[in-house]
Amino acid sequence: MRKLILAGVILQITIILTGINGQYEFGDIISFKRGCSCLPLYKHFAVYVDNVNIEGKLPGQDIFHCTGPTKSTSNCGFGVLGNEIGTKENYLDDNFTTELNRSDFHDRIISRITEKKNNCRPYKVRSNNCEHLATYVRYGERFSQQPGTIASLFCKRNLGSCEKYKKLLKEMEEDAQSQIDCEKCPDNAAAAG
């Protein structure tokens, strides 16, 4: 009986460490929608690190990401993908084929993670957010385009400051009955019906 239980535990750990259904590979950028699924306010971004041994990463931790908008200088770290549904979002791969085809691509990702781990600048929506971190780790350059979100409207405009975006974000986080009516979202209507 003990052998059967141990085999089950090893199988579960193997599944966790190799990614959900193997859909992610080391270095993939994963996005997570925040707000309504049909038109999210923004996306959270992380880099999939699989079961690769990186200094400071604990067993079972399979993502590297910005752990939250804080005033701290150490807001980047490892986490667990868990059951949250993410989407592989390597949307800049076509622009960085040289970087992606380098023989030391994995080593460069690990080097960038090591550089940023516990050493991120303070979080800023327009200049130092989770997407900036994820694109830097994968490509070596920082971008924030928020594809397919309301935030993308602000990212594409030169607003100087991003007070309108911050206000909208705060409203979405504080007000369950936000300006976006999620009940009218086709995804929610299908689920309800």
Question: What's the structural blueprint in terms of helices and strands?
Answer:
Blueprint: H1 2-17, E1 29-34, E2 42-48, E3 63-66, E4 76-79, E5 87-88, H2 97-100, H3 105-116, H4 130-139, H5 151-155, H6 163-174, H7 186-192
Antiparallel strand pairs: 1-2, 1-5, 2-3, 3-4
Description of the molecule:
The protein is an alpha+beta fold. The protein has one domain. 34% of the residues lie in helices and 12% in strands. It is built from seven helices and five strands. The chain has helices at 2-17, 97-100, 105-116, 130-139, 151-155, 163-174, 186-192, and strands spanning 29-34, 42-48, 63-66, 76-79, 87-88. It has a five-stranded antiparallel sheet, covered by helices on one side. A hairpin with a 7-residue loop joins strand 1 (29-34) and strand 2. The longest helix has 16 residues, at 2-17. The model is unreliable at 4-21, 172-180 and 187-193 (pLDDT under 50).
In short:
This is LRAT domain-containing protein. It contains seven helices and five strands. By secondary structure, the protein is an alpha+beta fold.
